[in-house]
């Protein structure tokens, strides 16, 4: 089983080659090349409409690309013969709007996919779920419905839900953008802890502080292309490209 | 005159007119005749207990059968209508248009004639059973549209979250989308239930025996035998006895669910 065959640190986890995506006549991704190595934390920043969310959503095929290749741990997921549902269990995804299942308790949110997709028994799934809830500091909320939780708590549950599938990598699509400012910290803390545990992470974010402190690499995107990439501290302090400078002067 | 005074005067005049009309109707009505025609205790007592043990029981039973059948078929049609396979969509659209566009009475009659007589299909329950098939077809056509709107009202993020956890489209639909869609359509589905309860009265066209009479047919027979309207009033009250608590219950459920979200 792949659970005992964790990816080798440093091996490419996500390999994106010449990725293109169009919505009708509008091309939002114009040839993206990006490799995320196992254990790496890559933060993607850029103005809205730059294509950063589309790029992230392409990685687990929520947005099927119109051109190029995406390799997940060496497997080309655009190959029609690939079982995308299997691949997706290895890629955790966290959304801006949390997207918890409102008709289920927190615990059930965490167990349903374990049981239905991974075929775990109820008892085992609940054990994993409680472990993950403890990890995000929400053990006492297991029996609640998501509607009774704060935004920050919901997002931590969403992270725990993704972790229950034992993913090799995690995608974060602006995980703190829908949160009240005072709730951002608790989510970033969980993400930071996850990063220190060695999780491969691709994070679309507006939190430059997080990118600087937790990110191994910063990608700046604008108008469907990667404009600049490199060490976060370096880019945030000395952006080389005019577009990066213009963007950072607005958000910092 | 001040505005509040004028408003009070206006309201007073309206109350006065209303009271005058009520008084006129009350005086002009031949109460004895009304009571004799519609509220005769002796006739009412003759209808019991059969009007409850047979007629009301059948009405409720037929409603539940056609609601359950319509629900299952309606879900299937809603899913076909949302299918990515074009012929499935065409079929479901044609189905819905047909059974929604044709009078329920005609569909029930057609099934009652067609299944046992023209096609020689033996439906459990005989004539009423065949009529119920017609009612199920009609109910499913209406419910398909309601269920489809409920499915589409579930936020797209729910599907995305389920799919990104590796759930297949079918599992996503069954575990995530449908349960939420059903919650959304509880009010319109109650409406369908109430409409169906009343539409069971159309089953008379399929032909009924003593034991398959529902409320309206039973009351109509009572009217003919006694040349008196009392059975109609009883039937009406029995319908209301079911529909009013039902709509109240659903309003309560809705409030409760609004809180838990």
Low-confidence stretches of chain B: none
Order of helices and strands of chain A: EEEHEEHEHHHEHEHEEHH
Mean pLDDT of chain B: 90
Strand content of chain A: 25-35%
Q: Whole-number radius of gyration of chain B? A: 24 Å
Mean pLDDT of chain A: 93
Label the overall shape of chain B.
flat
Extended strand count of chain A: 10
The SSE string of chain B, one letter per element, is HHHHHHHHHHHH
Helix content of chain A: 25-40%
Structural class given helices, strands, pairing of chain A?
alpha/beta
Q: What is the beta-strand fraction of chain B?
A: under 5%
Description:
Helices cover 36% and strands 25% of the residues of chain A. Chain A is built from 9 helices and 10 strands. In chain A, β9 and β10 form a beta hairpin. The radius of gyration of chain A is 18 Å and the shape is globular. The model of chain A has no long low-confidence stretch (mean pLDDT 93). The longest helix of chain B has 32 residues. The radius of gyration of chain B is 24 Å and the shape is flat. With 261 residues, chain B is mainly α. In chain B, α4 runs antiparallel to α5 and α7 crosses α9.
List keywords for this structure.
heterodimer, A: 252 residues, alpha/beta, 4-stranded antiparallel beta sheet, 9 helices, 10 strands, 25% strand, globular, B: 261 residues, mainly alpha, 12 helices, 0% strand
């Amino acid at each position: 089983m792949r659970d005992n065959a964790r990816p080798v640190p440093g091996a490419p986890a996500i390999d994106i080659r010449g990725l293109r995506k169009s919505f009708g006549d509008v091309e939002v991704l114009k040839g993206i090349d990006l490799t995320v190595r196992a254990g790496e934390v890559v933060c993607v920043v850029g103005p809205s409409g730059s294509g950063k969310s589309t790029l992230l959503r392409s990685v687990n095929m929520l947005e099927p690309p119109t051109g190029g290749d995406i390799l997940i741990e060496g497997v080309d997921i655009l190959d029609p013969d690939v079982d995308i549902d299997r691949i997706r269990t290895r890629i955790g995804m966290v959304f801006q709007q949390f997207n918890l299942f409102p008709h289920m308790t927190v615990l059930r949110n965490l167990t349903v996919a374990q049981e239905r997709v991974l075929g775990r028994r109820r008892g085992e799934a609940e054990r994993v779920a409680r472990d993950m809830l403890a990890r995000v500091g929400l053990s006492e909320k297991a029996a609640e419905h998501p509607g009774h939780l704060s935004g920050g708590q919901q997002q931590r549950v969403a992270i725990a839900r993704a972790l229950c599938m034992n993913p090799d990598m995690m995608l974060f699509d602006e995980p703190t953008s829908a949160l009240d400012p005072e709730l951002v910290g608790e989510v970033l803390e969980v993400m930071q802890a996850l990063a220190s545990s060695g999780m491969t992470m691709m994070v679309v974010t507006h939190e430059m502080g997080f990118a600087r402190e937790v990110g191994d690499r910063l990608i700046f995107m604008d108008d469907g292309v990667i404009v600049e990439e490199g060490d976060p501290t370096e880019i945030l302090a000395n952006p080389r490209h005019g577009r990066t400078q213009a963007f950072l002067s607005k958000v910092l | 005159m001040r505005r509040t005074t004028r408003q009070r005067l206006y309201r007073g005049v309206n109350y006065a007119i209303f009271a005058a009309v009520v008084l006129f109707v009350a005086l002009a009505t031949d109460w004895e005749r009304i009571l004799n025609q519609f509220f005769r205790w002796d006739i009412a007592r003759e209808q019991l207990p059969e009007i409850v043990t047979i007629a009301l029981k059948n009405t409720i039973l037929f409603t539940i059968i056609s609601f359950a059948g319509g629900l299952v078929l309606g879900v299937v049609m809603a899913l076909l209508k949302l299918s990515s396979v074009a012929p499935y969509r065409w079929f479901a659209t044609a189905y819905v248009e047909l059974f929604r566009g044709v009078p329920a009475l005609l569909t029930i009659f057609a099934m009652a004639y067609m299944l046992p007589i023209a096609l020689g299909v033996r439906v459990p329950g005989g004539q009423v059973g065949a009529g119920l098939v017609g009612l199920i077809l009609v109910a499913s056509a209406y419910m398909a549209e309601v269920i489809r709107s409920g499915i589409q009202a579930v936020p797209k993020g729910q599907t995305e979250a389920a799919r990104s956890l590796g759930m297949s489209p079918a599992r996503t639909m069954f575990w995530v989308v449908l349960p939420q869609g059903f919650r959304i359509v509880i009010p319109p589905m109650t409406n369908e239930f109430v409409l169906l309860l009343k539409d069971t009265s159309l089953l008379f066209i399929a032909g009924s025996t003593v034991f398959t009479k529902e409320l309206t047919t039973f009351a109509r027979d009572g009217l003919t035998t006694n040349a008196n309207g009392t059975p109609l009033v009883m039937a009406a009250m029995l319908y209301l006895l079911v529909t009013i608590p039902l709509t109240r219950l659903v309003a309560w459920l809705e409030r409760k669910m609004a809180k838990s979200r």
